[in-house]
Amino acid sequence: MTKNKFTGTGVALITPFQENGNIDFESLDKLVEYQISGGIDYLVVMGTTGEAATLTKEEKKTVVERVCQINAKRIPIVVGFGGNNTADVVQQIKDFKSFDNIDAILSVAPFYNKPSQQGIFLHYQSIAAVSPVPIIIYNVPGRTGVNITAETSLKIAQEIDKVIAIKEASGNMEQVMNILNNKPNDFLLISGDDALTFPMIQLGAAGVISVIGNAFPKEWSDMVHFALKGKNKKALELHYKMLDMIQNIFKEGNPAGVKAVLHLKKITPNYLRLPLCPVSVEHYQKIAKLLEIIQ
């Protein structure tokens, strides 16, 4: 079943850059292999963590094609298509030519222009009308400036067949419970917040689309899989083992924190594109100390 592809641990991939700002494809290949060997369940490409906002359309296309090539259909792939201009998002989907290698779209709620709940519903209805693959909607009001309410999420789940899941990153556990308690059986709620993943799974979430998984794919996918299987003691041990690191990778912005960890682990370089920049020297040193504890 389609929904089973997105149960477990998805990782929102970073985009590695060289010092000159170009995409580091060699490091990207290494990162994809690191995720797959770590046991994650699916890859999410060109999301916020991938710094998609700073990439050109051609660069996005090239990154997606490269990830698909390296993955070679070993695990499912989700690609981000989002924006605050519905017509442009629809056109992006129409112009995309590689859906044969893609299992779903992740589409963030329209940001900045603060649409009404009806506007959000109509936005996703328009996307669903042209998408050849299932859609995961993404609620992250801390970034977008607008919350997809539980009522709207449920309306989308009930009325737009192409939408199969929500990545829920509101941080509002009451909202999470309202969705879980009233959603259709085949609609998934996926955690969009690493620190809340364990409690959300206890409430009925299907897993996570993770940032910390970039640096710790085995540890984090183990945590999620233990929790989904009801092995809560083992899951909770890993949850608390990783909690300080999770909290610290977001303190100076995402993906700056997780790129620092990946650099310390010698997996990818520590470069970002402006307006994002690497974490401070002091915070890098703190992350390095936390990494020593975990390892």
UniProtKB/TrEMBL annotation:
The active site is at 138 (proton donor/acceptor), 167 (schiff-base intermediate with substrate). Keywords: Amino-acid biosynthesis, Cytoplasm, Diaminopimelate biosynthesis, Lyase, Lysine biosynthesis, Schiff base. Its EC number is 4.3.3.7. It is an enzyme of class 4 (lyase). The keyword Ribosomal protein does not apply. GO terms for cellular component: cytosol. CDD domains: DHDPS. Gene3D superfamilies: Aldolase class I (3.20.20.70). Pyruvate binds at residues 49, 209. It catalyses: L-aspartate 4-semialdehyde + pyruvate = (2S,4S)-4-hydroxy-2,3,4,5-tetrahydrodipicolinate + H2O + H(+). The record marks 48, 112 as: Part of a proton relay during catalysis. It holds the Pfam family DHDPS. It is found in: Cytoplasm. It comes from the Bacteria. One of its GO terms (molecular function) is 4-hydroxy-tetrahydrodipicolinate synthase activity. One of its GO terms (biological process) is diaminopimelate biosynthetic process. Pathway: Amino-acid biosynthesis; L-lysine biosynthesis via DAP pathway; (S)-tetrahydrodipicolinate from L-aspartate: step 3/4. Homotetramer; dimer of dimers. Catalyzes the condensation of (S)-aspartate-beta-semialdehyde [(S)-ASA] and pyruvate to 4-hydroxy-tetrahydrodipicolinate (HTPA). Belongs to the DapA family. PANTHER family: 4-HYDROXY-2-OXOGLUTARATE ALDOLASE, MITOCHONDRIAL, DIHYDRODIPICOLINATE SYNTHASE. This is 4-hydroxy-tetrahydrodipicolinate synthase.
